Fold this sequence. Notes:
This protein has 587 residues and is of the alpha+beta class. Helix content is 37%, strand content 16%. The radius of gyration is 30 Å and the shape is elongated. The model is unreliable at 1-17, 23-28, 330-337, 339-343 and 446-463 (pLDDT under 50).
Amino acid sequence: MKLQGYHQYNEPFAGKGTRKWNINDSHHDLKDLALPARCALELIFRQFAGVPFKLEHLSKAANGRITPADLRAAIPELLRQQYIVSVCKAWGDRLYFIPQELLYLLQQYWIRPGLTPRSSCDVRLVKEAKRGLALDLFRSLVWIACNELPITAKGTIHQRVLTKLSQQIALRQEDVKGLALKYPHQDVYPEHIAIMLDMLLELNIINQGLKVWELNVHELGLWFNLDLAEMNEVLYQRVLLKFVPADTELQHFVFVLSSLEWLEGEWYSYERFITWLQEERLLRPEISEDRQNWMWSWVEAMCGFGWLELGCDHAGGHAFRWMYRPRGKGLSPSASAKPSEDGQTNIRFYIQPDFEIIVPPEVPFAVRWELEVFTESVVTDRLSIYRITNDSVAKGIRLGRSRADILCYLHRYSAGIPNNIASALEEWGSEKGKPGNEVIFPKLDSPTSGAWEQKGNLSEAVIPWGILFCGENMAACRLYDAIPEKAELFPGLEQIPGMWLKMARIYHPSTARQLVSQAIQWQTLLVLQICGEMVEYLPSRLEGGEDWRVSGKLFTPFDPEGYEAMLAPKDWENMYIQLPEIDNSLG
């Protein structure tokens, strides 16, 4: 299986038979994991987050009594239970990583930022949340339906079209400039437009033709059968997946910021949050300027995407609050306005006598889509407002809707049509005549039924690639699900005497040196008898020739945390190599 593009090494495995993770059962799943493997997973998660690693990199994650050998020995069980995934590069190197959807769950399990909210009286709003990606995408789709996206000979969208498209969305270039996104034709597409195009491509709502990009009406219908909360779930997962660099600290920052511990609408100190991450050793004590800039750019982008707001206190400290916090993949965010068996929805919009239409947030997007044909958009937000005019009705007829179509639609999805509105529509519709032969604005079949049941939740669907990527390129990798054998985890295991691993014995200094050297190679513990007491010792470096010594860390019953100690063969009586147990289903 080839990984197309990059997409942070996780996305190619979504829906490919991997385990379905849900935060509601994460505690139960981790309890089913053997304790050594659970401890290993936590250390791997804290050290690497979702960044790929090789077996030899596990020494960076080892801590105290848990050695790199312990971590390697846990790999088979973690692979088998799909807590980690393995890929192989074209030249044979094997990489391991924690799947992206699992990062969110592990963060909820192990890292919960229990910070106290700030008083709202102490914080002044500096940057409010914009209307959000979902509504920006909706306005973009409406404009594309009426105008299409013509392509130049170089394969890019015309500049004048990009200008018009930019006018449809609330997201601005300065909202996302600091994320340092990478994509083709960066000299043509500003960042905010690239994000819109990327999302449309990933959701498969746009088909890329040679001369024009066009709407994929079938996929459009599937997308519009999600409510606003569900759209935000899908979009937030795409943002987490594609916009975060292959940087462990930045990934921890992003996923902890996504924690369910934050209360919506409550202000929190940004500086205190950063300090807490440092106390948890998820950020280093000295944060580089580049990292600081990127982290602040991320929270600014969350404002642009409609999820977060920023403020400041009287002393100049920064604050943030979630206005809408996506809950993470696999959760049901809210009760949706799903259709009944006859295709109807009980959510209505309201037609006012002054020709304005008030559309509550619960009204399905498929219903709003048809409103765009014969009305003027006044406000697009969670609560949207449209207006019926003579010109808008003329537009609707030009785009293929008859007077009867418009009246039927309003009767079906509104709470009622005022008499003056019905009379005006009859009059205006009669003046405009019949619809033209060429229908430009696509009509969705039964906008509140069918598509949901046919395909299920779009958040679990396999989604095509967009144009954005961030971090390490994994295009040359393929899924590699073979469980490593003992000989791969501990090279040379078959060549050493079995007694080295089984019982404490007295060895000649030259043989003892071989045992020490092998333990260093495997990064595992030695068990030594010193003054009649059995202790554990993690050797790190051999020194000297005939009168050799070894430096390492000594663990005793009185000092389980261990301390640095240099030993010579004369310092112990008996010894053996303590190799950690490996899943006994291996050979």
